[in-house]
Design goal:
Elements lengths: L10 E2 L2 H8 L5 E4 L7 H10 L3 E4 L4
Parallel strand pairs: 1-2, 2-3
Length: 59
């Protein structure tokens, strides 16, 4: 899988961690746990900031 030479993929376990990563230089973000009801708002935030999401688990 190609991550555009991004060698570190930051992972967020909470919405607060996600928001901190959202304004970083990283393009790709891994969501470790997210409640399904928050997924659409998280996705919209990622889209607005040109981030790509990968999720490991939904609660």
């Amino acid at each position: 899988m190609n991550f555009n030479n991004q060698q570190i993929i930051p992972a967020a376990r909470t919405v607060k961690q996600f928001e901190e990563i959202l304004y970083s230089r990283f393009e790709y973000i891994v969501l470790l746990e997210v409640h399904i009801s928050l997924l659409m708002s998280i996705k919209h935030g990622a889209d607005r900031n040109a981030k790509k999401l990968y999720s490991c688990r939904f609660n």
